[in-house]
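Tutorial sheet, problem 5. The two components below are modelled jointly, 908 residues in total.
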Amino acid sequence: MEQTKKFLLPENELPEKWYNIIPDLPNKPKPMLHPGTKQPLKPEDLYPIFAESLAQQELNTTDSWIEIPDEVREKYKIYRPTPLVRARNLEKALDTPAHIYFKNESVSPVGSHKLNSALAQAYFCKKQGITNITTETGAGQWGTALSFAAKTFGLELAVYMVKISYEQKPYRRSLMQTWGAQVIPSPSMSTKAGRKILTEHPSYQGSLGTAISEAIELAMETPNCRYTLGSVLNHVSLHQTVIGLEAEKQMEMAGEYPDMVIACFGGGSNFSGISFPFIRHNIKDGKKTRFISAEPASCPKLTRGVFQYDFGDEAGYTPLIPMFTLGHNFAPAHIHAGGLRYHGAGTIVSQLMKDKMMEAVDIQQLDSFKAGVLFAQTEGIVPAPESAHAIAATINEALKAKEEGTKKVILFNLSGHGLVDMTAYDQYLAGDLTNYSLSDAEIQSNVNQLEKII
Amino acid sequence: MEQTKKFLLPENELPEKWYNIIPDLPNKPKPMLHPGTKQPLKPEDLYPIFAESLAQQELNTTDSWIEIPDEVREKYKIYRPTPLVRARNLEKALDTPAHIYFKNESVSPVGSHKLNSALAQAYFCKKQGITNITTETGAGQWGTALSFAAKTFGLELAVYMVKISYEQKPYRRSLMQTWGAQVIPSPSMSTKAGRKILTEHPSYQGSLGTAISEAIELAMETPNCRYTLGSVLNHVSLHQTVIGLEAEKQMEMAGEYPDMVIACFGGGSNFSGISFPFIRHNIKDGKKTRFISAEPASCPKLTRGVFQYDFGDEAGYTPLIPMFTLGHNFAPAHIHAGGLRYHGAGTIVSQLMKDKMMEAVDIQQLDSFKAGVLFAQTEGIVPAPESAHAIAATINEALKAKEEGTKKVILFNLSGHGLVDMTAYDQYLAGDLTNYSLSDAEIQSNVNQLEKII
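Model answer (C-alpha cells):
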C-alpha cells in the first residue's frame, strides 16, 4: 500500500491572520521596561527604532488576531503554505511506534523560517515610507532572509555581520549580496560603537551585541531608516505563527493531533511559530499537548537560567525584558548552531515556561549532529545545525515511545536546511567537534551580575 | 485580487509511468555501436557495466510507457510532485505580456532534478542484488543525488570527483559524505587509469573523462559492482520525464498550454525531462510548441557542433553514440555552470535537433549570471549557474514577446538551486567573471579529429 508522506495546503488556505497568544494567556507577561525610566514601555518609545506598526504589534495585549496584509500574503506564496511531512523513513530507522511529522520551513528560498517575519517587517517599514533598514546577523539566517525581503519591497538594507561569521561563512555573505544588501563586517569603522571597539581591540572578532549596537546606531543616524530584529520580540513571534496555523490544518488532513510539539530554541522565533497556535488549544479546548523546546547544552537559558529582567543585547541598549536568561554578558561557546547562541528567551515564552505550560530540554552538540546525519540519510534533507537540535529531541521522545510501546504523535519544526552550513558537518564527520559542559559556577557568576540591573 | 502562484499536484497524481519518446519519433535515432565491433549495441553488451534493467531501458525502442516501481515512487514522494510556479514577480520586473511558468526541481533535498534518475538507478541496481556502485561527478550535482539515493536503497557508493572540484567545492564533497558516500579526488591512486596519469603528470587537476575511466574501472574490478551515469543516456532521459509529465497536468491546472518549453543543456537530462512529454503532443496532437535548449556559448554542441558518431567520454571507452558533438577531446572553458561543460548531446535529442523538432540557443556566462541575479531578486530562489542559462533564454523570449506585444506562455525548467555554488555569484558580483568566445577554427580542429573515428 502506498502511504501519503506530504500534506499540502492549497494557496487559498494560507492563513489570513497571525495569532497573538497574549490575550489568551492565563498570566500575562510582565511589561517590558524603558531602560532609562524603568517605566512600562509605550509604543511611542519604540517609534524611533522600529516601524510604528511593528511597535504597536509588539505591545498589543488585546487583539488575538492580526490581519496579514495582502501584499505580505502575496510574497508568502513564493514558498507558503509549506509542506507538513510524515517522516516515515526516520520512523522506520528508529523502529518506533511514534508517528513523526515535521513542518518543512526549509523550502523557503532563503532556507529557513526567518523569511516569515522578514517579509512582514520589510512590508510595514515600506508602508510607513521608510526607505532604509538595518539589522545584524550572526549565523546569517536572519540576514539572508531580510536581504530578500528588503529587495522585494524596494528597501535599502545594511547588515552588520559578526566579523568571524563574515569570514567563516562566505556563502551567507554572497547570498545577502546577491539579493542586493550591503554587508558590513562588525565591528566596523562605519559607527561610533564600531570605531571605539576597533580602536581599543584592533583584532576583535565581533559579537552579536556589538553588531546590534552598530545596526541601531546606523538606523538612528540615517534619515528615514529603522532597525529590524529577527527573534526574541513579540512581533516576530506573531509573524511566525503562520507556521503553526498551517500545521494545525495539515495535522487535521493527516487525521491526527500532536501529543508533542518540538522546536529548537535560540531567541524563540521558530518555537513560538509552531507552538502558539497549538498552545491555544491546551488553554481553550482542554488539549494536553506537551511543548518541548530544544536548546543547546552550551546555552541553556530555559533549563538552567533564571527568570528576571534583563537586556536583550550585550551592550544594554534595548528595553528591559522579563525573561529566562543566562545574563546578557553570557558568552556562549562557539557551537555551529549559531542561531541558538543567545542568552535569553522572549517574554511570552518565558512566561509560558514559568507557568509550566511548556518544557525545555538541552541537547549536546554531538547528539545534534548525529541526529542531523540520521535525518539526512533517511529523509534526504540536511538540516540546519539549529534544527538538528529539534530532531535530536524528537528522536529521544520517539525512542521513549518505543520503550513504552505507546503510539505518540510528534510534530517538530524543521526550521531550516543546512546546505550553507556544510563546514559544520564536515568537521563533525572528521571528528573535530566536541560537546560543551557548563558549570553551575559559570552560570551563577553571570546571573549574579544581573541582580544589580534593577 | 489575489493570484495563484503555485500549482501543486497531490501525491496520488505522481506519474505511475515514465515516458519513452523513441516509439513516437518520426525518425528513429541511429543505433549506438559497440566500440570494438562497430555493430549495433545489444543490452547484453552493457550488462557488465550497468544494471540489466537499466541496460534494457537504454535500448528499448518499442515501449512508450515504462512503469515506475512503487519503491521508487515512495522515495519520489520525499520531494515530488514538485511545484509548478507562475513567475509573476519576474514578469512584472520585465514588464512583459508573456506568462512565465517554471517547474521547480530545486525543491529536491539534493537541490536538483538529478535525484529523479539517481533513485531509479540505485533501485534497479539493488533489485538485481548489486551491493556497490560507482560514478563520477564534476560540478557535484549528480554525485550528491546518487549519494542520497545509494544510502536510501542500502548500496555502497564510490564517487570519483574531479580533483579541481574536490578542492574548490568542499560543500559538495561534505554533502556526499554526509549521505555516506566515499568521495575520491580523481585522478587517484586507487585505479590503474588514475595511477598512470598521476605518474606521468603528478599535478594533474583531473577531468570528467579521467573520472569516468576510474569509476568504470573500479566497477569492473569490484565484485557485485556496477557503474552509473547521470546524463546523456536514454534511460536517464526516461527517468527525468517525470518532470514533464507532472508539468503537463499542472499547466492544465493553470488553464494554459506552453508556446515554448525551455531548459538548460549539458548532456540533456533536464531538457529531455521537461520536453519529451510535451513533444509527444507536437507529434501526435498537432501542437506547435517550440522547444528551446539553452547551452553555454563556451560549449555550443547543438548550435555549432556536428552530427556524427562520437564517444561519450574523453578516453573513448563508451559505445559510439550518434550525437551532436564538438568532439570528445573538446576541452570547454572553466565556466561556473560545470554541469553544462560536456562535449556532446544524447542520441534522442540529437535526432530531434537534426529533424528540426527543437531549437538551441547559446548563452554567454555574464548573461546567465545577470539573469540568475534578477531571478533571485524577484522570485527569491538563487538558481544554479546551469539553470540560469534557461532563465536567460526565457528572459530573451519574454522580452521579444513584449516587443511584439504578444502574450506568449513560456515554461522553463528550474533544474536546481545555487546555494552550494555561491562562490560563482561572489565572483560575478565582484566583476571577476568573463564571457568566452570560441573561434570556428577551434571547433573545426576538434571536429576534424572525429572524421577518423569511423
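Marking note: Chain B touches chain A through 48 residues (CB under 8 Å). Full credit if you identified this.
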